[in-house]
């Protein structure tokens, strides 16, 4: 998962964070490639070490007990320590340990020692910082005892050095905590994204299971009807030709519809997850009763448009349209009580069936009603299985609309 907040600003992140947020091919040795920010930080650390080293070099001639050869060794050691700052990312603890050992021998290496301690505080847990920082403070005691600071008491020198060490450690730990916070927020975003996907998949699976149960019951209904008419022919051999023809037509139509339902069930079961709702449901012909029931419940529902031939709408398409209208009216009653809801159904054979349910924006504050949006996910899945599409979202006026288009061949 990439982080939208930092998309296009990778240069502003540390290399370790970029490697974690935007994983890619590993470099030789497993080290992440430095970003522009890393180069700026590394150069700044090197510059700080050099400046502190130069300031310390100006004070070497004030040490009466320091011979010229020792002064030259001090400065050469400081120069090497400043150059070693460029290795701080690869070996932070090792470089800090070396700097602790070098500090008593070179005053000009003090800046590099502070930079190495800061690096340990940024890249390693606190136990490493405590050991390296504690060893550095003990070495400082030895250093100021061997080479007293000109014009400054021993205790004052030790206190200033301790305060500087604590400040560097605190700054490094603050940078480390900000980096860890960024990574933890990334992990939380990943988990939230995964949980949302799992919830959507679960809702889709439950919707398919419900639809499969509904198809099963409808198919059983068809087969029962077929069996009844076939039995009537068996026990009424003296029936008239008209009655036999009518019963045969009913058997043929029921067999055809049962075959269609069976194909739908197989299509559902062949999908990645099962699908569908549970008992024989009303078809498009029951839409008027649904609107009347909603009005009796206190809703202001307006039914506009009519399909060209509602009786000719296939049963599966009619069930889907009915369920979409039912769920949309339920949502309007929960989330926009008291508003006018317009239900529109249009279409003809060959053109498809268009259904829309639109409500006006609610007046005033609406009480919060718990809901997760799983109903709309189920409707989308239902429309998709019927070979159609479903869209939903707010209108320009501030209301909400559900639009579905279903095939009608």
Automatic annotation (TrEMBL):
Residue ranges of domain Signal transduction histidine kinase subgroup 3 dimerisation and phosphoacceptor in the record:
208-272
State the superkingdom: Bacteria
Q: Which SUPFAM superfamilies match?
A: ATPase domain of HSP90 chaperone/DNA topoisomerase II/histidine kinase
Q: Name one Pfam family in it.
A: HisKA_3
Q: Which EC main class describes this enzyme?
A: transferase
Kinase listed as a keyword = yes
Give the catalytic activity: ATP + protein L-histidine = ADP + protein N-phospho-L-histidine
Answer whether the UniProt record assigns the keyword Transmembrane helix to this protein.
Answer: yes
Residues crossing the lipid bilayer are 39-57, 95-121, 128-146, 152-174
Known EC number(s)?
Answer: 2.7.13.3
What is the protein's given name? histidine kinase
């Amino acid at each position: 998962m990439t982080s939208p907040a930092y998309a296009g600003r990778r240069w502003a992140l540390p290399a370790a964070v970029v490697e974690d947020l935007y994983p890619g091919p590993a470099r030789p040795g497993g080290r992440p490639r430095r970003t522009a920010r890393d180069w700026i930080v590394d150069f700044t650390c090197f510059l700080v070490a050099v400046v502190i080293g130069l300031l310390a070099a100006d004070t070497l001639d004030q040490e009466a007990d320091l011979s010229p050869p020792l002064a030259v060794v001090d400065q050469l050691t400081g120069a090497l320590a400043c150059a070693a700052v460029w290795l701080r990312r690869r070996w932070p603890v090792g470089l800090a340990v070396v700097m602790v050992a070098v500090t008593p021998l070179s005053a000009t290496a003090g800046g590099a020692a502070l930079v190495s301690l800061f690096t340990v505080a940024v890249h390693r847990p606190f136990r490493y910082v405590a050991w390296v920082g504690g060893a550095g403070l003990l070495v400082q005691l030895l250093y100021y005892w061997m080479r007293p600071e000109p014009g400054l008491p021993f205790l004052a020198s030790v206190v200033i050095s301790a305060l500087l060490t604590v400040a560097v450690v605190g700054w490094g730990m603050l940078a480390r905590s900000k980096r860890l916070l960024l990574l933890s927020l990334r992990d939380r975003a990943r988990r939230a994204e995964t949980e949302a996907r799992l919830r959507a998949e679960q809702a889709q699976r439950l919707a398919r299971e419900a639809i499969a149960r509904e198809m099963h019951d409808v198919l059983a209904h068809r087969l029962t009807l077929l069996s009844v008419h076939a039995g009537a022919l068996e026990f009424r051999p003296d029936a008239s030709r008209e009655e036999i023809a009518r019963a045969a037509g009913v058997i043929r139509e029921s067999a055809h519809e049962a075959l269609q339902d069976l194909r739908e069930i197989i299509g559902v079961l062949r999908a990645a997850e099962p699908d569908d709702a549970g008992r024989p449901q009303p078809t498009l012909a029951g839409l008027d009763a649904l609107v009347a029931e909603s009005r009796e419940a206190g809703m202001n529902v307006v039914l506009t448009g009519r399909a060209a031939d509602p009786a000719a709408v296939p049963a599966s398409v009619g069930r889907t349209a009915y369920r979409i209208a039912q769920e949309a009216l339920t949502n309007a009653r929960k989330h926009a009580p008291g508003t006018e809801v317009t239900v529109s159904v249009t279409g003809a054979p060959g053109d498809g069936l268009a259904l829309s349910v639109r409500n006006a924006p609610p007046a005033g504050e609406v009480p919060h009603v718990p809901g997760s949006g799983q109903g709309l996910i189920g409707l989308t899945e239902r429309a998709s299985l019927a070979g159609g599409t479903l869209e939903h979202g707010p209108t320009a006026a501030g209301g909400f609309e559900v639009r579905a288009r279903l095939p009608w061949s």
